[in-house]
Amino acid sequence: MKTLKRLLSEEKQPYRIPKSTQDLIPIEKVYPDGIFLCGKKYSKCFRFSDMNYRVSSDEDKQTMFLSYCELINTIDSDAEAKIIISNKKVNRENFRDDVLIKMNGDELDLYREELNDMVIHQAIYTKGITQERYLTVSVAKKTIEEARSAFARMASEFAARFRNLGSSCMELSLNERLSVLHDFTCGDEHQPFEFHLSDTAKKGHSFKDAICPAGASFHKDHFTLGSQFGRVLFLREYASYLKDSLMTELCELNKTLMLSVTASPVPTDEAVREVERRLLGVETNITNWQRRQNQNNNFSADIPFDLSQQRKEAKEFLSDLTERDQRMLFGVLTIVHLADSLKELDNDTESILAAARKHLCRLSTLTYQQHDGLITTLPIGVRRIHALRTLTTESLAASAMPFSVQEIAHPNGMYYAQNAISKNMILANRKTLQNGNSFILGVSGSGKSFTAKREIANIILSSEDDVIIIDPEKEYSPLIYAMGGEVIEISAISENHINAMDINKQYGDGANPVILKSEFILSLCELSIGRKGLGAKEKSIIDRCTASVYRDYVRSNFTAAAPTLKDFYEELLKQKEPEAREVALAMELFVNGSLNTFAKESNVNTEGRILCYDILGLGRQLLPIGMLVVLDSILNRITQNRAKGKNTFIFIDEIYLMFQHEYSASFLSTLWKRVRKYGAFCTGITQNVDDLMQNHTARTMLSNSEFVIMLNQAATDRKELAGLLMISEQQLSYITNAQCGSGLMKVGSALVPFADHFPHNNLYRLMTTKPSEVRNGGY
Q1: What is the pLDDT of residues 237-280, one digit of tens each?
Q2: DSSP 509
Q3: What sign does the dihedral 167-168-169-172 (CA atoms) show?
Q4: Side-chain half-sphere of 665: how many Cα atoms within 13 Å?
Q5: Best CA proximity match to 400, nearest among 642, 148, 135
Q6: Predicted pLDDT of residue 673
C-alpha cells in the first residue's frame, strides 16, 4: 500500500550512536507556540480532560463511543496521531504545600492539626498518582507556516469534538510540552521544571538540557533513566473482541508510566481499493478450489472454513468502509513504565501483562528496541516501532478509549471528600469556577449541616476569607464560638439590634448607593402593608423620603450616625399626601410597636470575620422582614469586603424558608446573581428539594450554581435533580440509599461520586448534629 510505504519511509532514519543523553531525544527544533520539529515532521500536542465514562449508562456510553469515533475520523489522512495516558506520581512536598493547612501559632492550631491528620490519613488510601491525557498530532509539511495552518484547523475541530464528548481540549505551550517530558524522564530528580526560551538562546544552551536525564543506558529488555529503571512493551496480538476498558485497566498500576496508541489513517479510496483487491484474491482462491473439486467429481463439497472466513471478514471490512463511516488505520500500542529497581520493574511488568491477558491480548517486551519504543511512546510525534496492525475506527476507539472517571484537583483546592471510584482526593476551589455559588442537598440525616460545617471550618482555618452564616435552627453556635466568631441572636425580644437603614458608600455597583437602598426600603414597606401592595403614588413618596433621610448622612461621607426606620417614619408623617400617612401607619408596628427590633441603631458587631445570624427566634410576623434585613446587612458587608479585596462566603441553612416569602426570595435571587462580582460565594442548604424545584426562582438559582453537593435523596427529589442537572441513572445510584456523608458532587460540568469519612475528634464533636452524639457531649 502507498500509505504503508510512505509511513515506513518517513520514519526511516539512519541510526546514529548517541554521544550524550541530549542525543537520545530526536527533537531538532522547538517553536514558542509548542510545535516540535522531529526529522521531517512537525508535531503539536493537546491536553484533554477525562469524563465520566465508567459511571455512565449503556446508552450514554454508546453515544460517547460514537462521538469518540467521529473524533478519530477527523484526523487527516496525511497526519499521524498519538492518544496518550500518562501516570505521574504526586509530589509529596507539593502536596504538603498545596493541600495541608499551615499553622498560625494561635488557639485554632489544634483544629488545623486535626484537619491535616485527616487529609494525610485519606492520602494513604489514594493511588498517589495523577493521570493526564494527551493527543499528539504530527504532519509532514515543507515549512512551519504550513504546519501552523494545519494545526490551527485541527485545534478548532478537536475543541468542538471534545466539547461534544463532554470533555475539554487545550493546546500545550512550549513550556508545558517540555514540562511533560521533564516530569517523565527526570522524575527521580524531584526538581521543579524551569525553562525560558529567550534566556536559553542567549546563553547558547540547548532546550534539551532542561528535559534530558542525568544519565541513560539501554539494554536488551530494559533501560535506565537516571536512577530509575524502565521497560517498553508493545501489543503483539489483539483479541478478536476488544473491550473499551483495555487502555484504562492497563494504566491502573500505581506507578509512573505512559501508554501510547499511535494511529495512522489511510485515505478511504485507497483503503477501499486495497480491501476490494484482497476480496478479489479470496474469491479467486475459492473459485480455483471449487474448480479442483469439480474436476474430481466432488460437486457437493463445502468451501473450507478458512476461505469462507476470509471472504466473510473481507466483506464486513468493505461494508465498514463504504456503509458504516469507518476508516482504515494502522495502529500500534506501546507502554513504558518506570520503577526504582529491576526487581520492582519485573513485578510491575507481570502485572501489566496479566491485565492484557485478561482482555485476551498479548503484550511483549521490545527486544533491543527499548530506545525506539521509548521515543515512540513519548508525546513528541515520532514513531520508531513498525509493529503496525490494521484496525477500523471502532476497533481503534475500543482499544484506545482513554476516558474513565472525572477527577477534581484544582490548584490550591480544598479537600472535600474522596472520589468513590478512583479513590483519589477531591480538591476543589470554588474561586476558580465561573461562579462559586453552591447548594448542599439531602434528606434529613444525610449529613447536610455537617458537610457545610466542615467547609466553614476549612475556610476559617486555611484562609483569611470572611464567613457569614444564616442559622434558622441554632445549629452552628458551638462551631462559631470555638472558631472565635460572633453569633447574633435576632428576635422581637432580643437585645441585639440591626438597623435596617444601615448603608455604606460601597453599597451598590459604584453608583449612588441610596438608589439601591431605595429598592430595599420599597420592599420593606410592601411587606409592612401586606397584600394590598404599593401603588405608584406610594412608591414615589417612599423614594422621596428615602433620599431625604439619607441626605445629611451622604453629605457627611457616611461618617455620621446612620438614619433609622424611626427617622424614615417621621419623614413620612411630614408629607402632605394621605398616602404617606397610610404607609406610616402600616409601618408603625415595626417602628414603634412590639416588632421594632430593626428600627433601632445597630448595637452588634457586624464587622467580625466570622458572623452567624441566629434567626430561630423570629416569629411568623417578623420572619419576612427579618430575613430581608439580614440579607441586606450581608449585602452591606460583602460590598465593604470587595473594597478591601476580601472574599466572603455566605452559608444559608434551610434556604427554602427564604423562598416562602416573595420579597426575600427576590432579594436573594438578585444577591445570588451579583455576589460573584463582589468576590463572594453563596451556599444554600436544604432538604426540601422538591419544594425548591417548584419555585421558579429557586430552580433557576440551583441550575446556575456551579458547585452542588448531593447527599442521599428521596425518590421524588432524585427525579427532579436528574432532569435539571442531566444526571444519568448510573450516577443516580450514588444518591440512592447513600450512606451519611456520601453522594454526588457537581463541580462545574463534572459529576463525581464521593465518599467522606471524618474521624471522631474535637472538630467532629463541634460539627455533629446527631442526637445521640449531642446528648453524649457532642457539643
Answers
A1: 888 777 888 888 888 888 889 999 999 999 888 888 888 888 99
A2: S
A3: negative
A4: 14
A5: 135
A6: 85
User: Measured between alpha carbons, how far is 230 from 194 in angstroms, rounded to an integer?
Assistant: 25
SS3 label, residue 775 = helix
Amino acid at 492: A
Q: For residue 313, what pLDDT band results from cuts at 50, 70 and 90?
A: confident
For 138-176, give the DSSP string.
EE--SSHHHHHHHHHHHHHHHHHHHHHHT--EEE--HHH
Q: What is the mean pLDDT of residues 80-84?
A: 94
Alpha helices for 536-622 (secondary structure H) = 536-555, 565-574, 578-591
Report field, pTM of the whole predicted structure over 0.70: yes
* Per-residue confidence band for 778, with pLDDT thresholds at 50, 70 and 90: very low
511, 725, 494: which is closest to 619 by C-alpha? 494
Contact between residue 87 and residue 256 where contact means Cβ atoms under 8 Å apart: yes
Q: Across all residues in the chain, what is the average pLDDT?
A: 87
DSSP three-state, residue 321: helix
Residue 726: CB atoms within 10 A of its CB come to: 12
- What is the CB neighbour count within 10 angstroms for residue 262? 25
Are the beta carbons of 332 and 388 closer than 8 angstroms?
yes
Percentage, residues of the chain above pLDDT 90: 34
Q: Angle CA(611)–CA(615)–CA(620) in degrees, nearest 5?
A: 160
**Strand pairing class (228-237; 362-365):** antiparallel
Look at the block and give the residue holding cell 453629605.
Answer: 555
Q: Rounded to an integer, what distance in angstroms lies between the CA atom of residue 301 and that of residue 308? A: 13
Residue 329 in contact with residue 264, Cβ under 8 Å?
yes
pLDDT of the residue at 13: 64
Question: Is-contact 20 691, C-beta < 8 A?
Answer: no
Whether pLDDT at 172 is above 90: yes
Name the phi and psi angles at 283, rounded to 5. Answer: -60, -40
Q: How far apart are the C-alpha atoms of 533 and 489, rounded to whole Å?
A: 30
Which residues have a Cβ under 8 Å from the Cβ of 126 and sit 6 or more positions away? 418, 423, 424, 425
Q: What pLDDT, on a 0 to 100 scale, did the predictor assign at position 237?
A: 87
Secondary structure string (H, E, C) spanning 415-472: EEEEECCCCCEEEECHHHCCCCCEEEECCCCCCHHHHHHHHHHHHHHHCCCEEEEEEC
pLDDT score of 775: 45
Q: Which residue has the cell 533501560?
A: 223
Nearest by Cα to 135 from 45, 35, 34: 45
The cell numbers describing 289, all together, are 478450489
- What's the grid cell of residue 584? 406610616
* C-alpha cell belonging to residue 41: 515532521
Q: The cell 528496541 sits on which residue?
A: 369
Dihedral of CA 136/137/140/143: which sign?
A: negative
How far is C-alpha 663 from the geometric centre of its chain's CA atoms?
Answer: 35
Return the H-helix or E-strand segment holding 225: strand 223-225
